[in-house]
Structures are given as C-alpha cells and as structure tokens.
Amino acid sequence: MALTAEEVARLAGLARLDLTEAECAELAPELDVILTSVSRVAEVVGPDVPLMTHALPLTNVMRPDEVRPSLPVEAVLAGAPDVEEGRFRVPRILSED
C-alpha cells in the first residue's frame, strides 16, 4: 500500500511539521520504502529470534558511589565572576511573579 501525499501531510501535521505540498509529494515514496523495509523485518522476526537493541551485548560500567574529598569552597569560588554568601551569584532570569 503506497503512502499518498495527503497521508504524509496528515502525519506531518500530527508531528507538528510544516511541510509544503511538494515536500509531501516527495516524501511519500521515500516513507513508503521505509515502511516496506520495516514490514519485511517484522516478517522475519519469530519466537526463536531474541529481541535486541544492539548487535553486540552491552553492559553499563558503574562504579560505587563513594564520598571523596573535594576542593575547598574558597578555591571553587575563586574563579567565579561574582560570589554572594558563599555561593555563585548569577543574574536573575525569572521574574518574581
């Protein structure tokens, strides 16, 4: 089933994309190729094919969360352009309202 330019325009509207009629007409066959490819993959997948997100197994490398000594406050604030009450002072960007 080929995608029409009208269907692409509807999808673009749902995605909040502003596409011209020419862009919709150009994208319709390209999106149709993508959808056909995805459907072919879905045909191959069976109960004996494990789901995976990567071709290689990946694991997160985590280290223990340990408290360690850090810089003294004075050393950290020494490079700040403005300091107030032992903290960085930054310009106000939000109103009080």
UniProtKB/TrEMBL annotation:
One of its GO terms (biological process) is translation. It comes from the Bacteria. InterPro entries: Asp/Glu-ADT_sf_sub_c, GatC. It catalyses: L-aspartyl-tRNA(Asn) + L-glutamine + ATP + H2O = L-asparaginyl-tRNA(Asn) + L-glutamate + ADP + phosphate + 2 H(+); L-glutamyl-tRNA(Gln) + L-glutamine + ATP + H2O = L-glutaminyl-tRNA(Gln) + L-glutamate + ADP + phosphate + H(+). Keywords: ATP-binding, Ligase, Nucleotide-binding, Protein biosynthesis, Transferase. GO terms for molecular function: asparaginyl-tRNA synthase (glutamine-hydrolyzing) activity; ATP binding; glutaminyl-tRNA synthase (glutamine-hydrolyzing) activity; transferase activity. Its EC number is 6.3.5.-. Belongs to the GatC family. Heterotrimer of A, B and C subunits. Allows the formation of correctly charged Asn-tRNA(Asn) or Gln-tRNA(Gln) through the transamidation of misacylated Asp-tRNA(Asn) or Glu-tRNA(Gln) in organisms which lack either or both of asparaginyl-tRNA or glutaminyl-tRNA synthetases. The reaction takes place in the presence of glutamine and ATP through an activated phospho-Asp-tRNA(Asn) or phospho-Glu-tRNA(Gln). This is Aspartyl/glutamyl-tRNA(Asn/Gln) amidotransferase subunit C.
